[in-house]
């Protein structure tokens, strides 16, 4: 990894975290944020004048993690601008989503570990609400401790935190970026020792980091991080119809909850011993799947149909999964394509683990697949099948780059984002763990 993986093309001092990547989780975003902070520190280790001021746009997981790591590495003046009235607002209070730091990487080594072990803002697998509470509490504690250290009666570091920001505009002026912002004065301000609290300001920064995070779906009535009851059995004895539209990690997660009783990824891996017994062949298939031309569903079918111990483990796994099938739901998986399920499956941007879970549901007939060759109008399809509009779940992703375009006032075609693969970021973070203490400044 190098700093150019995070730098916006042609904009040398403006950076973004995870805006072009498919694998977006709390842990992967933290890993990217730590990676960027350390790359910046290394890039400007011999130029103190260029590591004074940083503006971070976004007070979510990535923004807070990056800010803390920068402060711990001696950066002196950091501003966080957040449009919501509070930090970590998207996941705050979400008790219906179970968050695990590593399980999405299964069957990789360490994927069953319940602790994040990132060394900056660690947390343990739990509901999204509990995880963000744990992260924010630890962040506040560490920030106050860092800002409390001072010399000559003045803080060595300053963190200015502004929530409820309604307007941000950036303009590149020479070697700096001028940021103008306005916040809603009715939102309670948040501040720290030595920080300035105001409702509007225009000032220059050496660096700007966009940490716009997960984003919020604009077209869905059921935002992914809002509480709902899809995972609960209906107790009135009536079967209800649902449509899940999409084939990414979010869509497959909802499909699993709607079709499988008691579903939780780490619980499935812990309790279904067949998955442990299939780890070796599945690891081989996962490695193969990294090549785009590989027929993943064909590889999984071939493995599951073998007439040996491997095939027997598959049959038991599929049978045990089938015993968990919900009878109170009838679920349609809708995908806006004409290529059939196998092509859609292979082309899905979802993680290998979620595609494995989808394959097991497919073998069990736990859902009905519908594509655009059947209907191009999802609302009409729902009406014909007596499915209420409230039971249509759209998981078409979010435009995480929209805030960058808006703040910089540029057309999408004028902004280029680089990929920041989680594996590469993690490798860099692991490599720099042992040397981090050597580059940290003023932490005694």
Write the layout of secondary structure elements.
Blueprint: E1 14-16, H1 26-43, E2 53-57, H2 61-72, E3 77-82, E4 98-99, E5 126-127, H3 128-148, E6 150-151, E7 154-155, E8 158-163, E9 165-173, E10 176-183, E11 200-205, E12 207-210, E13 240-245, H4 249-259, H5 265-271, H6 273-277, H7 279-289, H8 296-304, H9 309-322, E14 329-335, H10 341-347, H11 352-364, E15 368-371, H12 378-384, E16 392-394, H13 402-408, H14 422-433, H15 436-439
Parallel strand pairs: 1-12, 2-3, 2-12, 3-8, 13-14, 13-16, 14-15
Antiparallel strand pairs: 4-5, 6-7, 9-10, 10-11
What is the total number of structural domains?
2
Largest sheet strand order: 1-12-2-3-8
The DSSP helix count reads: 15
Here the CATH topology of the largest domain equals FAD/NAD(P)-binding domain
The total count of strands amounts to 16
Note the gap between the termini: 30 Å
Shape summary: globular
CATH top level of the largest domain? Alpha Beta
Helix content: 25-40%
Q: In terms of per-residue confidence, which ranges show pLDDT below 50 for 5 or more consecutive residues? A: none
Q: How would you summarize what this structure contains?
A:
The chain is α/β, with parallel strands linked by helices and 444 residues long.
């Amino acid at each position: 990894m190098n700093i150019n993986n995070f730098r916006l093309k042609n904009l040398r001092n403006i950076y973004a975290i995870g805006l072009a990547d498919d694998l977006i989780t709390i842990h992967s975003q933290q890993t990217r944020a730590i990676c960027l902070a350390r790359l910046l520190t290394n890039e400007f280790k011999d130029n103190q004048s260029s590591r004074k001021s940083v503006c971070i746009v976004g007070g979510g997981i990535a923004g807070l993690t990056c800010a803390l790591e920068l402060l711990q590495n001696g950066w002196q003046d950091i501003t966080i601008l957040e449009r919501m009235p509070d930090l970590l607002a998207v996941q705050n209070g979400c008790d219906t989503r179970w968050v695990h730091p590593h399980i999405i990487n299964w069957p990789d080594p360490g994927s069953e570990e319940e602790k994040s072990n990132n060394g900056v803002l660690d947390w343990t697998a739990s509901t999204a609400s509990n995880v963000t509470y744990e992260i924010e509490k630890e962040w506040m504690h560490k920030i106050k401790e860092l800002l409390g250290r001072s010399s000559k009666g003045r803080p060595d570091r300053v963190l200015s935190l502004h929530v409820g920001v309604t307007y941000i505009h950036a303009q590149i002026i020479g070697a700096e970026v001028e940021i103008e912002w306005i916040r809603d004065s009715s939102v309670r301000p948040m501040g720290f020792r030595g920080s300035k609290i105001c409702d509007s300001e225009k000032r220059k920064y050496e660096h700007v980091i966009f940490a716009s995070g997960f984003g919020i779906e604009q077209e869905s009535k059921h935002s992914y991080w809002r509480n709902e009851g899809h995972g609960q059995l209906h107790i009135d004895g009536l079967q209800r119809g649902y449509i899940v539209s999409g084939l990414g990690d979010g869509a497959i997660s909802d499909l699993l909850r709607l079709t499988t009783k008691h579903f939780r990824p780490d619980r499935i891996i812990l309790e279904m011993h067949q998955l442990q017994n299939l780890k070796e062949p599945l690891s081989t298939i996962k490695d193969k799947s990294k090549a785009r031309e590989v027929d993943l569903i064909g590889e999984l079918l071939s493995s599951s149909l073998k007439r040996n111990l491997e095939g027997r483990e598959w049959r038991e796994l599929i049978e045990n999964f089938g015993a968990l099938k919900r009878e109170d739901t009838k679920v349609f998986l809708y995908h806006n394509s004409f290529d059939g399920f196998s092509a859609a499956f292979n082309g899905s941007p979802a993680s290998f683990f979620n595609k494995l879970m989808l394959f097991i549901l497919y073998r069990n007939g736990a859902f009905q697949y519908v594509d655009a060759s059947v209907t191009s109008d999802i609302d009409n399809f729902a009406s014909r099948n007596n499915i209420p509009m409230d039971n249509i779940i759209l998981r078409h992703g979010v435009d995480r780059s929209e805030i960058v375009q808006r703040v910089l006032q540029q057309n999408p075609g004028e902004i280029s984002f680089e990929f920041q693969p989680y594996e590469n970021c993690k490798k860099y973070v692991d490599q720099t763990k042992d040397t981090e203490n050597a580059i940290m400044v003023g932490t005694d």
